[in-house]
Amino acid sequence: MTVLMHLSDLHFGAHDPAVCAAAQRLAQRLGVAMVVVSGDLTQRATAPQFEQAARFVKGLHARSTLVLAGNHDLPLFAWWMRWGRAYERYAHQFGMDQEPVRQMGAFYVVGVNTTRAWRHERGSLSSAQIDHVAALLARAPPDAWRIVASHHPLVARDADDREHRPSRADEAVQRWRTAGAQMLLSGHLHEPGVLQPLPGLWACRAGTAVSHRLRHGSPNSLVVLTVEASGTAVGGMARFAARWDYDEASTEFVCVSRQTVGQGEWLAV
Hints:
The protein has 269 residues and is of the alpha/beta class. It has helices spanning 17-30, 47-58, 88-94, 127-138, 169-179; strands at 2-7, 34-38, 64-68, 101-104, 107-111, 145-149, 183-186, 193-198, 201-205, 221-229, 237-247, 252-260, 267-268.
């Protein structure tokens, strides 16, 4: 079994240390091969908050990590940094590449930066970004699970969700699906969910993994993707997506739903 853990909206500076420790225990228990963090690492983009986020991610002990910036990772109060230095503190801990690409085992993940230095909350995609991601997907290994990760959600569950999507989201989804994308990972809304916007394409949205900033009655949560041996699946391997929520009584993350990706709906466990 190969395991990918997707977390989002860590918001260090507004984090819960007990939940952080539980997420690290889960990662070690599952033997996570890859960690994807889809933005909002910090609450206010300060250097100490980025340091805390980096220590947490390292403590997950994944063999590969892909970390994206979110809108909270651009300085708000140090507004002068948004002109030419918006990603400076992020880069000090997580590198200069704002759109990393990672391959680990069965997973091929393309990161895309939907944040913009001149925007506080809303996201955007350029035509050049859409073309670049499509080209990367087209070159992916044919048997890989081809995944695109972004901070802002690219598909909407309802009308209220639509305003949170980056500009050109519809164009991006269509192009990337044609290029071979099979899964979209995102965060931003602090509300976990799964959608199938097009045949063959799924979207998993993680909640806030470790912060106090809970919304919509959702607990701290994260997503775990696995590729497992199966005698009934094509090629002998099956793909699963599971939602894990933090349980205050046990102080651990517990699996609350799991599905075979490409079939059916979320199944309660």
